[in-house]
Amino acid sequence: MNFTRWSARLPGTQRRAAARDDRSSVPPARAEYAQPEAGPRPPGGDTRGGTSHDPRDDSRGEARPGGPTPEDLSARDILGQLPALVALVYGPDHRIAYVNDAYTAAFGPRPAGATAAEAMPELHELSLLPLMDQVLRSGTPRTVKSRKVRGGNSYTVTCTPVHRDSDDEGAGEGGKGGLKKQSRNNKGSGRDRGSEGGVLVYAADVTDHAEAAERLRASERRHRETAVTLQRSLLPQELEQPDDLRIAATYQPGGTDAAVGGDWYDVITLGAGRTALVIGDVMGRGVRAAAVMGQLRTAVRAYARLDLPPHEVLQLLDGLAAEIDASQIATCAYAVHDPNEGRLVYSSAGHLPILVCDEDGTVHRAEDPTGPPLGTGGWIHTSGTIPLPPGSTAVLYTDGLVERRSEDIDEGVAALERALSGAKGSPQVVCDRLIRSLGVTAEHDDDVAVLVVQHPARTGADAELFHNASLDLLGGIEAAPRARAFATGVLTSWRFPVDLCDLGVLAAGELVANSLKHGTPPMRLGLRRTDRRLIIEVTDGDDHLPRRRRADPADEAGRGISIVATIASSWGSRRTPGGGKAVWCEFALPR
């Protein structure tokens, strides 16, 4: 074919092309323009070779080079030597006008005049045919990047609109022509002048680049999976399930990069039916945030074993956070549930408020008191309370669930309240619903941790498995016999096996005797059964905690706590609000 007949619209070249069209005094290029007529030689002109001097040869005051110039080469010569794949099609059905050698080597020869839809299946694989239609209609070049064909190679393809003037039909197939840039003024007017539109397809092989990019993406996926695995390994592998609560949690890493955040949660059984609930967030992302999170979570579990009030736990954690990294901001909320009180006692270090939804759908915020984030020092934390009656649900969460760049965080908390108000079902169902309602997806840009705690309202046969009984003791020598008699009657009415009743009565007597000897009135003996254990607890007005010690053979006292520790599944003690202490032990019920 003759490329003299074609012109291409290349971005940014229309003005220059129009300017050249206006400079009619510039002689045409060789092989594209007619030779000038013979006439008087212009002054200073060169008549070497019997031809007129071309001012373009020395427009910059330089001699014309001895090698071939762009005017000496046809567009076919240039395109044929390109390593990129080039095809030229024309007409609304994209009939093949030309393919270069690189195109033929990649996909085989293509018959001239055939339609691209029939003879160029590779264009269909690259999804280029609709794009070529659009380019032909709009006259605007379009580029698609890294498209893969059946052989596995990837190409970046640019489709450029071209047109052929009908008055050039007579040009020979072997003529030396060039792709002429069409001026902006001629855009869209070719049809009126009898022109025929086409598309120049230029495809660069980017297989190596695409494969490298895919390897990089695979590496990033592996790194992210490793980071997420590390993060999850620092979280509880299995949540503890207290007798009186039903708990579920969800953690979702944010973003698509390998860096994970420092969100964490935990559930810690404290004994005597009490449960600690923890949620925290170390600001930032990456290994450092995860490492700080792991240290704080481990410390919280250690401090929780001391069975301290929530504000004292955060006070200890605040000092540790300053030692670990004072520049790392971390928030935490720590709450304790006591089934005998039906409420949460909590303390917050800069964390978002705990939400509690009553059985009727009313949602309450545990907003006060709260203190600054961990590690700031100099702040005295305090504890607050919020009711958690049977049938209610509490939600602890990190800021990734409610914080959005386009709105205030209070709006996000309000949206969470609305979602929680209508959330029903198991804790895991509620967890999933809150995640969906707040619009958290796999592409979410921040880590999200959610802890859902339900205090179920028990009825029917299930309620028969949970009982409480208590006896107030005024002291005196008759207190221990009264306690043993009370325990015998209660445990028998609960239909426990005889051996469990005997052990329970023995433990109750020893705890009361220890309180009579080392404590002060008022005293109380509490018995509680759940579906899994028997809990015996004695409280008094003295805050000195008992210690298990080894009694010498000649000692007449000092064996009570050792006896309890030996026969019970577990035992412990804690200080109570307002002064005093509680000493307890547990027995696992037979299955």
Automatic annotation (TrEMBL):
Q: Which GO terms describe its molecular function?
A: phosphatase activity
Which parts of the sequence belong to the PPM-type phosphatase domain?
Answer: 242-455
Report biased composition (Basic and acidic residues) as residue ranges: 51-63
Show the InterPro entries listed in the entry: Bact_Sigma-Reg (IPR052016), HATPase_C_sf (IPR036890), HATPase_dom (IPR003594), PAS-like_dom_sf (IPR035965), PAS_4 (IPR013656), PPM-type-like_dom_sf (IPR036457), PPM-type_phosphatase-like_dom (IPR001932)
Which UniProt keyword terms apply here?
Hydrolase
Under Pfam families, the record lists: HATPase_c_2, PAS_4, SpoIIE
Indicate whether Glycosyltransferase appears among the record's keywords.
no
Q: From the UniProt entry, list the residue stretches annotated as the region Disordered.
A: 1-74, 139-198
Its protein name is Serine phosphatase RsbU, regulator of sigma subunit
* Annotated source species: Streptomyces atratus
